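Quick one - inputs below.
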Amino acid sequence: MLQYTLKRLLFMVPLLIGITVICFSVMHLAPGSPTDLQTQMNPRASAEAKERLRALYELDKPLHVQYWSWVKKLAVLDLGKSFSPDSRPVADKILERLPITILLNVLSMILILAIAIPIGVLSAVHQDSLFDKATGVFVFVGFAVPTFWLALLLMIFFGVNLNWLPISGIRSLNYEYLPPGAAFWDFLRHLILPVLLSAFGGLAGLSRYMRSNMLEVIRQDYIMTARAKGLSERTVIYKHALRNALLPVITILGLSIPGLIGGSVIFETIFAIPGMGQLFYMSVMARDYPVVMGILFIGAVLTLLGNLIADVSYAVADPRIRVS
Amino acid sequence: MFADFRERFLKNKIAVAGSIVVLALFAVSLLAPWIAPYDPSAIDLKLVLAPPSAAHPFGTDQLGRDVLSRMIWGSRISLKVGFVATGIAMLIGTILGALSGYYGRWVDAVIMRFVDIMLCFPTFFLILAVIAILEPSIWNIMIVIGLTGWMGITRLVRADFISLKERDFVAAARVIGAGDLRIIFAHILPNAMASVLVATTLGVAGAILTESALSFLGIGVQPPTPSWGNILTAGKDNIDIAWWLSLYPGLAILITVLGYNLLGEGIRDSLDPRLR
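Output:
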């Protein structure tokens, strides 16, 4: 097990290097030097900011020197300072906004699992039934729905027309005057719509995946053995088949991380949630270059870590992976 | 083989439904100047945010412009973005996948690691970062969506090439002295086009969704050029008074994406019924 984990860790190194190279190239995409572009596009970037940027990226040195010194700073999470008037370190700005983004993504992932797995299993067990066909249509339409549009519709319906749920921010104006229990409930109410919508995007894919997994497992010999020795259909499906069909889901969870993190830009912007996605959006609009590059890098590293965790837990759950 | 395909395609309800939607969209965007009831940029300040009526079936926006006309013109943007972006992705994906699958060894290793690295980035982050540096314009968006969407096609084409290159017809081509490039592009590639075609059709749908999300966030197609995404931005700004600005453009996106997805599925079924 340890050996497998080490192997995966080693495999991450070239990917990590690749990530830094791509971030670095994106930074140098700009025609001319990034500082020129910054000052042209951003009236807030003063001559002093330009000088700071020049120093940060050491733009007067050759490319490989620039890259190396940039990587050395990355290694200690020195992502430079923001262009915005507060000029705070980029790492601080990102880290203070990371928890809410991670909380939202974890909650929506739990919701995806809780809904998609039963749907997938039931439609596989009752293949070609009305339920299977109905969920099939639902999934097909689900793939095509622009989630930000669905967000708007739900905001209009639950927020504006019915006035049941708040549609912006993560706490009400009177939050500080609420007793702890009510304050927590207030916080939860603000999360309902964003989490629902963020989960909606992943629902279709996972339930289809679960269905095809389950269909494949049901046809295996050991399922026939279980039936042959007289186990009830319930035990066969929910004990023998389900366990094996669930295994590959771990990998899919890992693979769905970039989509979830990427989607947080849209949801956090629509619902005004002060997370990393909203920071990213605001920085893109303000052309706050160091923050944009910092979040791009952190987003990729989070994905890499998510995949590593998925790989390792898959190996823990399924001994066959460790051996091959 | 093509006659076979046509017969199966026309019998396939999904494929026919998808084609009808897609063809109708083509017609709408081609005929936009003639079928749009109003000039899409004609401002009428007496009719700001008018709800749907006989004169303006989808209502008017915050500047009194006719929403239906703006949506009809906006369909051109979706079409353009869908095809150019996916074209770029298909080109890169096919070439890299072909090289990777055909040559194997270090070529394969390098290209596949590159794919792995690209897949680490949340695509939307990468697109936004590049747009932050370049100007947000329709051309930049098409290019960026294309440059960040080729990885899936690369993997598909690679898998096809790995199995196809062992076939007898490839050995035969080599025996009569065909070079690598000729074998790749003239002999193997046509046999791998089926999966590329399906992936491309589905890719158009994905590109349209991405463009509308970008335009919705204000980093895509810039006003006053109408696009479905940027009409929805106005819908969000006027969320408590003008539901029609939010409802109709989103429906248009939904139907379009559904159409391309149906078409893609239909093509897949008709090309090879065994794939199902």
